[in-house]
UniProtKB/TrEMBL annotation:
It comes from Neoaquamicrobium microcysteis. The lineage of its organism: Bacteria, Pseudomonadati, Pseudomonadota, Alphaproteobacteria, Hyphomicrobiales. This is O-antigen ligase family protein. Keywords: Membrane, Transmembrane, Transmembrane helix. The chain crosses the membrane at residues 16-35, 47-67, 73-94, 106-127, 133-149, 161-182, 194-217, 224-245, 316-336, 369-385.
């Protein structure tokens, strides 16, 4: 058995149906993901070009992005957005309403499936190239990411070594790093050394936590069970933390601030009888006297409506209430499900990708902020392509044109002679 067959690499001789045109048409989308920090300084135009290029690529490929389990969440979210524009949603401590802000806050809902669909198409087309040139691609992506960080000027080069919060660029680099790590099987000590090196290059609690999770999953004999445990731990933490903000403050200041933000969301949910406050209002009360001697705020007036709750789950709960959160979870946990009949090595890889999505969505705005959306969409697409490859390998696809394309794109791996 070849090294690639032992790991994640399956030789492919033909691109996925759709060819090169959709891939290159949507390429600005990938470029924006890697350099979003600096490109956002140029205003909304680069973002609109990136999303439009992805939508055009899907049009050329004949793909409709909003479907499946995402459709109920999208439809419900559209209803809430419409009611928000009509200003008929209930209110809590919220005082501001801005229709332009409502559109900006809701923007991620239609854009997320477009990004996922394009990245899925792109990975289908380029997977063989990705496997063959993964070292060079990791280096190129890392250089583009670091260039974007320096151009933006948000990080201190003396304290922020490389991997900071898992924003678009860092998340994409992390996904490519995982492909490199799991491309072939190595002794666990070698992999542990590689992960330790990545940990040393991390300068935020979030990215360091992700490195530790990757190490644990790499060593685990039951990665699916461990992923369930990680997910349960993250969700339990964000559910309990709002009641212990003061106790969390000595441990981590940022976590204590998040806990107060989440407590405000719970209050707003209770005040609106679980309906949420809709779109176009501020995200925060910015009352932090419990942990600071003053009421911290990034700005006043309309500026506050763009400060999110630092959790995609709480963002959805605040805007769309309990029903919206349940529909979001209905899609999310299906999107990160483990592939059936995969090898232990493959399940470890899939669990690492899913863990990034869980961490990024639980304690940050991984799926509800443009700063994170491209990286998270890339991760969802990578999981989807892995499941398709396993489906093609085991002959589980239905006898349709899609199945034929899958088997053409992902032939069975080499076996022992």
């Amino acid at each position: 058995m070849t090294a690639s067959a032992q790991g994640l690499g399956y030789k492919t001789t033909a691109p996925f149906a759709g060819g090169a045109l959709p891939f290159w048409v949507g390429f600005p989308c990938l470029l924006y993901g890697l350099m979003s920090l600096s490109l956002r300084e140029l205003g909304e135009l680069p973002l609109l070009i990136a999303v439009a290029s992805a939508a055009a690529a899907l049009t050329f490929a004949g793909v409709w992005p909003i479907r499946g389990r995402y459709m109920p969440f999208f439809v419900f979210s559209l209803v809430i957005f419409t009611l928000s524009l009509a200003q008929v949603m209930p209110s809590s401590w919220t005082k501001i309403h801005d229709e332009n802000a409502a559109l900006r806050q809701w923007f991620y809902v239609p854009v997320l499936p477009i990004l996922i669909a394009y990245f899925t198409l792109a990975l289908r087309y380029s997977y063989a190239f990705l496997q063959k040139n993964i070292v060079a691609l990791v280096l190129i992506a890392a250089v583009l990411s670091r260039m974007s960080q320096h151009l933006h000027g948000i990080y201190d080069p003396e304290t922020d070594v490389f991997f900071y919060t898992l924003t678009n660029d860092v998340a994409i680099v992390a996904m490519l790093f995982l492909v490199l790590l799991f491309r072939e099987k190595r002794h666990w000590l070698v992999d542990a050394t590689i992960i330790a090196f990545a940990f040393a290059l991390s300068s935020s609690a979030q990215s360091q936590l992700f490195c530790l999770v990757v190490l644990a999953l790499r060593l685990s004999r039951r990665p699916t069970l461990m992923l369930i445990g990680i997910s349960a731990a993250c969700l339990s933490f964000i559910a309990i933390a709002p009641f212990f903000a003061v106790q969390l403050h000595p441990l981590d200041h940022n976590t204590a601030v998040r806990a107060i933000l989440w407590r405000d969301v719970l209050q707003a949910t209770a005040d609106t009888f679980g309906l949420g406050v809709g779109y176009g209002t501020e995200y925060i009360k910015h009352r932090f006297e419990e942990i600071m001697p003053w009421g911290w705020t990034i700005g006043t007036g309309p500026n506050d409506i763009f400060v999110a709750t630092h959790s995609s789950f709480y963002d959805v709960l605040l805007r769309e209430g309990v029903i919206g959160l349940l529909l979001f979870c209905f899609w999310f946990f299906h999107a990160i499900r483990m592939p059936a009949r995969a090898t232990l090595h493959e399940r470890r890889f899939a669990a690492c990708v899913a863990a990034l999505l869980v961490i990024n969505s639980a304690v940050n705005v991984g799926l509800s902020s443009i700063s994170f959306l491209f990286g998270s969409a890339f991760a969802v697409a990578l999981l989807a392509v892995q499941r398709e490859r396993f489906e093609a390998r085991h002959g589980q696809a239905a006898p349709t044109a899609r199945a034929a394309a899958l088997h053409e794109a992902f032939p069975q791996p080499a076996t022992r002679g």
